[in-house]
Design goal:
The protein is of the alpha+beta class. It has helices at 29-34, 57-69, 83-89, 105-113, 120-136; strands at residues 2-4, 10-11, 26-27, 48-54, 75-77, 96-101. The strands form two sheets. Strands 2-1-3 form a three-stranded antiparallel sheet. Strands 4-6-5 form a three-stranded antiparallel sheet.
């Protein structure tokens, strides 16, 4: 397999360019790691932690771009995206959560702090949630 040297996307060996990053080279997994990027196939997607919650999709998109530029994998989701949520909670506004791998939480917070400083209450809630998730997570399996 080959990987984009910019975004880390995985491609078959026959591929020559990344469909998302014009001009980026496709490299081996070892070359990608030497660039400081973890191949997407090696990212543990089960252990992502929420680092920020925002109220509009444009802010979510802007913050996602910043994290990706810092080579931090990010998952963006709208946890209340359905009609039933509005009916059952009485809250009509959506919000978006950005989550990153547990190992990248501190780096992500540093990247986001300059453009989206979290309130003290939000930081405290995020820290409690991360603690809760760490206690509930199964122990890592040895390689």
């Amino acid at each position: 397999m080959r990987y984009c040297s910019n975004c880390g996307a995985e491609y078959r060996d026959e591929a020559t360019t990344c469909s998302d990053c014009p001009g980026a080279r496709l490299v081996s997994a070892d070359e990608l790691r030497s660039l400081g990027i973890t191949p997407i196939t090696e990212v543990d997607h089960r252990r992502f932690v929420r680092v920020v919650q925002v109220d509009d999709p444009l802010t979510a998109q802007r913050l996602t771009r910043l994290l990706e530029e810092a080579r931090i994998p990010v998952i963006v989701r709208d946890p209340r995206g359905g009609t039933v949520d509005s009916l059952t909670t009485g809250i009509s506004q959506d919000w978006w959560e950005l989550s990153v791998p547990r190992a990248k939480v501190d780096a992500a917070r540093r990247v986001l702090a300059s453009v989206h400083p979290a309130s003290k209450a939000e930081r405290a809630e995020l820290e409690k949630e991360a603690e809760r998730e760490a206690l509930e997570a199964p122990p890592p399996t040895p390689n």
